[in-house]
Protein 1
Amino acid sequence: MALSKYKIGQLIEIVDERNTLGIKNFYGININKEFMPTVADTENLDECKYKVVRKNRFVFSGMQTGRDECIRISMYSKDEPIIVSPAYTTFEIVAKDIVLPTYFFMIFLSKERDRLGWFYSDGSIRSNLDWDRFCDIELNLPDLSTQQKYVDIYTSMVANQQCYERGLEDLKLVCDGYIDKIKHTSPYKPIRMLFKEVDIRNTNGEITFVHGINITKQFMPSVTDTDNVDLTKYKKVKKNQFAFSGMQTGRDKCIRIALNRSNEDIIVSPAYTVFEVLDTIILEEYIMLWFSRKQSDRRGWFMSDSSIRSNLDLDRLYETQIPIPAPQIQQSIVNIYNVYIKRKEINEQLKVQIKNICPILIRGSLEES
């Protein structure tokens, strides 16, 4: 069996279906080639201008391919359609007698393919991969039966991962149900009585790796350029201490707060506030669990100011009240939550492993042909 060579443009066709269906599920693509709810403010947007993505339809964004060393492309696999920004290109495989949609997507789950996109991206500041250049990329393709054989392996692994993920949601429901019971049976205390501010600076500059907080309330490497920045002014966050940023709480509908669970100190911007819990009978992880709820984020959004940045001022955060049950009850719910967090980490590892196996599957299909 011989391989056939085709340019991407010979296999696909742009589909520009606008949202006349009233869909309000706004999504984007991350660098892991996954669909994710958009972090942009969608209030007062005209959703009719957005593009509809249906099952087995692809979404492509050539923006910043060179900067991120990643071709942002994803295939939508769910039954319920979503919408994406008009800036994205949406397309479908039309040469299905030549390439299977899932096999086509598997080709792009590869660091090698991302590096090729980086090589092809233009020399502009944004390092875009133009659509015409993308369509000009050549692919070596085996026959359909060989493609199907390796697609079946990939889809079975994805099905197992998704089954594991559904179990995660059940565990999260147990946590939420426990919290709902606590809300009605435990006395409340304001944050002002639970936290004290800590201001320890990185005075000797020993820590050089700066962290920020993402919308999932996790510490992450800062995306800010810290060259020529005086890191001695940055604040340390020790184990079991919190960092809080009130900026853009209203815009993102998220209270940016994170707990340092690691044994190593990290540093954050001087604009952040660092806390530690005053009372030893209150578990830090219980406090973090409370702030991880969507209800807490909605309250933070409601309490944020009306400025352009929609900040949640520190004084307003201090007014927030949290139910404080007995220590053994706190520990019980924290134990359940920790199992959920651990399994969530395993789920993310499974997704990475599946993605890493794809280049091996593609190579196997090409060698077999």
Note: The longest strand covers residues 89-93.
Protein 2
Amino acid sequence: MIFKFKSWWRKRIVRRKSIDDALWQHCIQRLPLLRQFNDEEITRLRELATLFLYYKSIEATADLELTHEMRVVIAAQACIPILNLGIDWYAGWVSVIVYPQGFTPTRTQTDESGVVHEQLMSLGGEAWHRGPVILSWSDTAYAGEIDGHNLVIHEFAHKLDMRNGAANGFPPLHAHMSFEKWTKAFSQAYEDLLFKVEHNLPTPFNRYGASAPAEFFAVLSEVFFELPQMLETQYPAVFCQLCEFYRQHPRLIA
């Protein structure tokens, strides 16, 4: 009964709050990444983006003027990872905060001697466990280009990773998936990237992915949706695991 009511309510939201046709078409033209999807997938993506805009608060900081078009651009990309998972995968939090440019929060870190240090870190985005997603619009504005870098997908991949606790590169897997296969695929690929970074060798993907397993998962999620053929060539086992997790099999040709 609860499931039927939820389904009815969401269909009602989609019907009454649907993204304007002209605005949605403009969004598709603005984001080349969306052109990989067929008509049925685009329709479902639009419905998910409508629900996202209904359930989430997208607010600007400083002097950024956040338009409805900008909100749709964020929502459309945020819903790509959950296209075949559903909006409930983003349950448990509400806010998306958008800065005009990158931001520099202060972080504290305790060293081995117990001394606490304060560090300034320049960031383009951030995802908090049970908290908001923070985005820089200057980075988000170009996130839909097909170059293997997508800030929105990166931060929302963290949110999926956090569904079973702090981000660690091991999101909650579907019942049919193997923990052992996931661990083996990601561990071997992560060690390969670490080796290349430590020895100053060319790396196929963003070197930031070597900073932690959580960042590795987020970085490879970006590549999975933007340059899937490159990921399949470099780390085929990881590609297969991400196909199973996201329930998608992107074949985008840039």
Note: The two ends are 45 Å apart (CA to CA).
